[in-house]
Amino acid sequence: MMWLSGGFIFRRGTSAYHRLDPRVKLLISVLMFVTTLLVRSLYELALVLAFMVLVSAVATVLRRVARTMTLTALFSTFIFVINFLVTRDLGTSVLYALRFVAIVVSTSLFFITTSPDELEQVMKTFRLPRDVVFAFVTAVRFIPVMLLDTMQIMDAQKSRGLELDKGNVLRRVRNMIPILIPLVVNSVVRSGELAEAMESRAYGAVPKPTSLVEYRSTLTDRVVALTAVVTFAFVAYSFYYILPLQFP
Amino acid sequence: MIELQGVTFVHQNGVKALDGVSLKIDAGETVAIVGENGAGKTTLVKHVTGLLKPATGIVLVDGVSTTSVSTAQISRKIGVAFQNPDHQLFSESVEEEMAFALRNFGFPPDLVEERVRWGLELFGLEEYRKSSPLVLSGGEKKRLTLACILAWDPQVVILDEPTVGQDSIQKEKLAQTIRMLSSTGKTIVVVSHDIEFLWPIQPRVVVMKAGKIVGDGPAPRVMQDLSLLDSARVVQPQLVALHRGLSRKPLEPFVDPLDARRWLEADLK
After folding, report:
1. What is the ipTM of this complex?
2. Are B194 and B168 in contact (CB under 8 A)?
3. CA of A111 to nearest chain B CA: how many angstroms apart?
4. CA A50, CA A235: separation in Å to the nearest integer?
5. What CATH topology corresponds to B1-72+188-235?
6. Domain for residue A208, yes or no?
7. Contact (CB, 8 A) for B260 and B239
8. What is the pLDDT of residue A4?
9. How far is CA A51 from CA A98, A195, A248, in A?
10. Residue of B85, B81, B153 whose CA lies nearest to B119
11. Is A185 within 8 Å of B90 when comparing Cβ atoms?
C-alpha cells in the first residue's frame, strides 16, 4: 500500500524540477491536463504521455510516476471495458482509458514534487480563504499519516485472526469494517485535537497572518513558464491543424 | 517456542530495521525487549507474528516458519497487544469487541460467552460490558485490548509498550497480570521503555540497538552493565542505581523498594 501511495505523496527531491517555483509546476501540470483533454487520437495521446515521461525523468520521479500508473491501471481498465461494451470501438476505448492515466499522471506530477508548504503558498497566491487553504493543505499533509494508521490497524486486526484476503467479495467488503471504523474514529479524534492545538497556538487571532516564506519567481521560473505556455499553444495548434493532416 | 535465525529486514525507505538478529525464546519464559526508539523492537515483534517477513534469515514459531503460514494462523498461538488500542477497537460494545477474535478463530458460542465473561472479570471491565469501547478511558482501552487477547488463550502474549497512558496503580495491576500469566506457563514478551515497570518483574532482558541485539541475559546482570545500557541509551532502574551507590550492600540489587528500605534502615542502626 505504501509502495502505491508513493505515486501521490510528496517526498523531498533535489532535481531542477523540484526547485521550480510551485506556481510554475502548477502551470505545467494544468497545461498537461488541458492538453490531455484536447487529445483526439492515440497518436496525440502518445505524444502527451511521452512528454509526461520526459518531465518525470527531469524531475527524477519516473519510478514514482510508474506507481501512479499502476494505481490507475484498475480504473482505466474499468473505463476501457465500459467504453468497449458501449461503443464496440477498440481505438476509442483505449484512448479513453489511457487519457484517464494521463490525467492522473499530470496531477500526480504536481503533488509528488510540491511540498504541502509550497502548496499552501500557491493557494494563497490565488487569494483563497485562509480556512479553505488550511483545510486542504492539512488534508494533503495527513495522507501519509492516515496510510500509516491504516497499516497499523490492519496489523492489529490481522493479529486478532482477521483474514482480509479470504472469502468472496461480500465477505472481503465486510472484513473492511474493522479497518474502516478505527480509521474514521481516529481521524475524527485527530482533527479535534488538531483544532484545539491550532487554537492554542493563536490560529485565527489576526485576519491576515504573516508568512515565513515568500515565493519570488526567478528568471529560470519565468523562462520555464513561458516555454510551457508556448509549447502548449504549439501542441494545441498542431492537434487541430498539423497532426490530423499527417495522421488522418 | 520462538526462534529467529539471522533475521535481516530493510524498510522501503532503505533503513535496516533488523540486522542479522538471532534470538531464541523458550516456552514459559518472560522476556523484555528494551532499546531506544528505532532500535528495531517493534519490527522484531512484527516478524514473530508474521506481519513482516524477513528479507534474509528465518523466523520459527513452534518450529513452523512464519513465511509458510498466515498472520491469522500464527495469532492463534501468539497474541499481540499493540501500543495504541485505538488501532483495533471498532465494535458496538465491549463484549462484541472481546468476541471478535474468538469468532474469527471459530470458538463455539457458549465458549465465546464464557471467555468474554472471564476476560471482563479479570480486567475489571464488567460494568462496561454493553458500553461502546470507544468511550472508555485510555487505561481502560488498554486493559480491554489485553483482555481481548487473553480471551483466546494464546501460548505467547506479546505486549508492545503496555504502560503507555497507564497510571501507577494500573501499572502495578499489569505487572501482577504478567506474573500471573507467567506462573501459568505462558510465554510473555514485553516491549517497553519503562525500565522501572520491568525491573520488579525480573524478566530476561534483550537489549537492542540499531537493529541488532547487543545484550541478552537475566535482568540483574543486564541492568548492572552500565556500559551496555549507556551504549543502548537505556536508563538503569533506580533500585539498581541505588544499590550501585551503596558502600555496603547485598550481593544482588533490590527488586522491591521495601527491601531497599529495610536494608537501609538496618544499615543505619
Report:
1. 0.81
2. no
3. 19
4. 13
5. Rossmann fold (3.40.50)
6. no
7. yes
8. 61
9. 14, 42, 22
10. B153
11. yes
